[in-house]
Design goal:
Layout lengths: L2 E4 L8 H11 L3 E4 L1 E2 L2 E2 L5 H13 L3 E5 L12 H17 L4 E4 L15 H14 L6 E5 L9 H11 L4 E6 H6 L4 H8 L3 E6 L1 E2 L6 E2 L8 H10 L5 E4 L5 E3 L2 E3 L1 H18 L8
Parallel strand pairs: 1-2, 1-12, 2-5, 5-6, 6-7, 7-8, 8-9, 9-12
Antiparallel strand pairs: 3-4, 10-11, 13-14
Helix pairs in contact: 1-9, 5-7
Length: 277
């Protein structure tokens, strides 16, 4: 059976509201990105403890640390960036999260090519994989427009070149569409490496984010193939229906619930068992 998780900060900055709406929508786990406007890498001890306690009290967990690691320029200082990554690893341990979401860097200048920086991207990725080699956590790379791993082929290059079970894919439909790629073409390439799936859809004509199933992400087709191929992981709602920004989106409670309902309908139409649907 597939399970629902969410970037709960898409609902509200407030933790109690995040939990309330998630429970109403059948979401059992957070992909923890921010609470009260504070990024997961900047939580203090008290906020960490409050989040963990309230999630446990409500029978919820954390499936991934939704970190911004790798969402910086590839020429930005490595030591400071590595320190941020180490915080993400500590957070994954604290919240018992099996995944840490990461990215694969922007070019030095906006809109510039990333291919000249391939070796530096790989060096940084290998260093992170080495750091977690003995930890009970997997790094999941999210494809994202404008970073090295924006296309199916570049994501495949990351997986094959790093060649470690500690680095896998978080497949994002809308981000491929916004990179002018067809997710249905990229799925066969990345299916062997995909252990996590983000649910966000978009239209190819203008890149506009829309509810699941209303765009060009081929979500129903890909989820059906994923399930038939043995995928039993999480579907993380990341609707971006009110705001679609570089470092995160927002939907609000009503639009978040609309996205959750759209995904449940999509799964029902394709005979996909979804917990909480």
């Amino acid at each position: 059976m597939l399970r629902l998780s969410a970037f709960a900060d898409e609902i509200s900055p407030e933790l109690d509201e995040q939990i309330r709406v998630c429970r109403e929508c059948g979401v059992t786990h957070f992909e923890l990105r921010s609470v009260r406007g504070v990024n997961v890498l900047d939580f203090d001890k008290d906020l960490r403890a409050e989040i963990r306690s309230k999630l446990r009290d409500n029978g919820m967990g954390v499936v991934a640390i939704g970190s911004p690691v790798g969402k910086v320029r590839v020429v930005d200082p490595w030591p400071q960036h590595l320190d941020r990554f180490k915080i993400a690893c500590d957070a994954a341990d604290y919240f018992a999260a099996p995944f840490i979401r990461i990215f694969s860097y922007y070019p030095p200048e906006k809109g510039g090519p990333m291919s000249p920086h391939r070796e530096e991207v790989l060096r940084r990725m290998r260093a992170k994989v080495e750091y977690v080699k003995d930890e009970n956590v997997t790094l999941v790379h999210e494809n994202e427009k404008d970073i090295y791993g924006a296309t199916g082929r570049s994501c495949l290059d990351l997986m094959q070149s790093v060649d470690s079970p500690k680095l896998r894919c978080a497949f994002d439909f809308a981000n491929f569409v916004q990179a002018r790629e067809n997710p249905a073409d990229n799925w066969p390439l990345l299916k062997p490496y995909t252990v996590h799936i983000h649910i966000k859809d978009a239209r190819l004509v203008d890149g506009q984010v829309v509810p699941p199933g209303e765009g060009d992400g081929h979500i129903g087709h890909i989820l059906t193939d994923a399930y038939k191929s043995g995928y039993r992981g999480f579907l993380t709602l990341e609707p971006h229906l009110a705001q679609d920004k570089q470092f995160g989106g927002f939907s609000g409670p009503v639009l978040f619930a609309k996205a959750a309902d759209a995904l449940k309908t999509l799964c029902s139409k394709n005979n996909l068992p979804l917990e909480g649907a």
